[in-house]
Write a structure and sequence with these properties.
The complex is a heterodimer of chains A (148) and B (70). In chain A, a hairpin with a 6-residue loop joins strand 6 and strand 7. In chain A, 39% of the residues are buried. In chain A, 34% of the residues lie in helices and 26% in strands. Chain A has 148 residues and is of the alpha+beta class. In chain A, helix 1 crosses helix 3 and helix 2 crosses helix 3. The longest helix of chain B is centred in the middle third of the chain and has 12 residues. Chain B is mainly alpha-helical and 70 residues long. Chain B has three helices and two strands. Helix content of chain B is 46%, strand content 10%. The chains are: A alpha+beta (148), B mainly alpha (70).
Chain lengths: 148, 70
């Protein structure tokens, strides 16, 4: 496996999320790098093993490339004229940081189910009253990333 | 990581799910952590972090309790 290509595949995945809000399929990666789908699959699996992103190994679709989610969630981030989904309350803040952009965030609060809105503008957060609960200590984050 | 409007809602969630309370940060603390954690995420040079680098990020974000031990 070509190590330079491996990290290029990782960047391709992240750029695809940034450009389209969606993860690239294996076919997208194979076409972009002019490699076979099987070769693209090997790169995806290796990046999954390195925790570069979280792959659903049955469907070979990218579930998470933090802060981006491959599926709709309760954490919507409107930035650069697009709507992204974040994996969690931390990642909803991570998207404007990763994109280096302003953002409007719509998020559902756990337990109350109220929807709240935050604005990220010029590197500042405008809602100061909310709390984020980290249920597991860092040492256990990778035991079950979906729960974390 | 879950978003809450108050400590009371966190207690209710923990009780309903029979889970111990973890660590609670204000949204501004997590905003500062996010800036350290995600600022270079789209760079081709970002290859993940080793344990020392992760510990340094937590230290810079002021997260020094055992919960954040790497």
């Amino acid at each position: 496996m070509n190590d330079t290509r491996l990290w290029q595949v990782r960047q391709f995945v992240y750029n695809h999320f940034a450009d389209t809000t969606q993860p690239p399929s294996l076919e997208d990666a194979a076409k972009h790098f002019n490699i076979t789908k099987e070769e693209a699959s090997e790169y995806y699996k290796e990046l999954h093993n390195l925790h570069a992103f979280l792959l659903d190994l049955e469907t070979m679709t990218i579930r998470m490339a933090n802060p981006f989610s491959g599926f709709p969630t309760d954490f919507k981030v409107h930035a650069n004229g697009k709507t992204y989904y974040a994996n969690c309350a931390w990642d909803m803040l991570g998207i404007p940081v990763a994109l280096h952009s302003d953002a409007i965030i719509e998020a559902v609060c756990t337990e109350s189910n109220d929807t709240v809105q935050l604005e990220i503008k010029d590197g500042q957060n405008t809602n100061y009253d909310l709390l984020i609960h980290f249920p597991l200590p860092f040492a256990r984050w990778y035991d079950d990333l979906v729960f974390t | 990581m879950l978003l809450f409007q108050s400590e009371e809602w966190i207690d209710k969630w923990c009780e309903r799910n029979s889970l111990e309370r973890g660590e609670v940060l204000t949204i501004n603390q997590v905003w500062e952590l996010s800036k350290l954690w995600y600022q270079d995420r789209l760079s081709v040079d970002y290859h993940g972090r080793n344990t020392e680098q992760i510990a340094e990020v937590f230290k810079q974000a002021g997260l020094r309790s055992a919960f954040w031990y790497v």
